[in-house]
Design a protein that fits this description.
- The structure is a single chain.
- This protein is mainly α and 205 residues long.
- The protein has one domain.
- It contains seven helices and no strands.
- Helix 2 runs antiparallel to helix 5, helix 4 packs parallel to helix 6 and helix 5 packs antiparallel against helix 6.
- The chain is globular, with a radius of gyration of 17 Å.
- It starts with a helix and ends in a 22-residue tail after the last helix.
């Protein structure tokens, strides 16, 4: 959640269109939005409003990003990897909660994906731009989240017990997301229209 809030706050800062209030709000929305959407769709009180620590973590990360701003540029890679780890955790916990609620497997996979990408999507909508998960110019984001959620749900349907499905789902999500950052993977785009800008070369190890 901390990494999501930092990413949301930095995105808001880079836009040059918001003040510190906007930075904090967008950071909190990015960190908590996916879980709130999931819980509302499940018809249960949002978990983020039942434990003050969720909000405390999100609200502490956003001001930190505001204060440090450019000093975090050299930490872009660790922040991106932390965001990938957060995406992995959110998608598997979201899918597991949906399964526990007794909804269908397909719906559980979708809710797992929403838990991971919903906050960033809300952030982009509030900033009046095409959500990152829908942009042809972005690296894989929704696909890793849905993959991680699918691993958890398929394991649950198969009757698997223990923590290994969650670990396997998180590992699959993280591997896909980290690989897309490293190798500039993108989802297939429809033919026609203007092509996306050329991908930058992968960073040197």
């Amino acid at each position: 959640m901390f990494a999501f809030a930092v990413d949301g706050a930095l995105t808001a800062i880079r836009s040059g269109r918001v003040d510190i209030v906007g930075v904090v709000v967008l950071g909190v929305v990015t960190a908590m939005g996916g879980g709130v959407i999931r819980d509302l769709l499940l018809g249960v009180p949002p978990a983020t409003f039942q434990d003050w620590r969720y909000l405390a973590v999100a609200m502490s990360a956003a001001p930190l990003a505001f204060l440090l701003d450019r000093r975090l540029d050299h930490l872009a890679r660790p922040i991106a990897l932390a965001d990938a780890a957060g995406l992995s955790l959110f998608c598997v916990t979201g899918a597991a909660k949906a399964v526990e609620a007794g909804i269908g497997p397909v719906q559980a996979i979708v809710l797992g994906g929403i838990t991971g990408v919903g906050g960033g999507t809300l952030r982009d909508v509030l900033m009046d731009r095409v959500p990152t998960v829908l942009s042809r110019d972005s690296h894989l984001y929704a696909i890793p989240a849905l993959t991680g959620a699918a691993v958890v749900v398929v394991a649950a349907v198969a009757g698997a017990a223990g923590a290994w499905p969650a670990f396997a789902g998180a590992a699959a999500c993280f591997a896909l997301r980290a690989g897309s950052l490293r190798y500039r993977w993108r989802a297939p785009a429809p033919r026609g229209g203007s092509p996306p800008p050329p991908a930058a070369p992968p960073p040197a190890d």
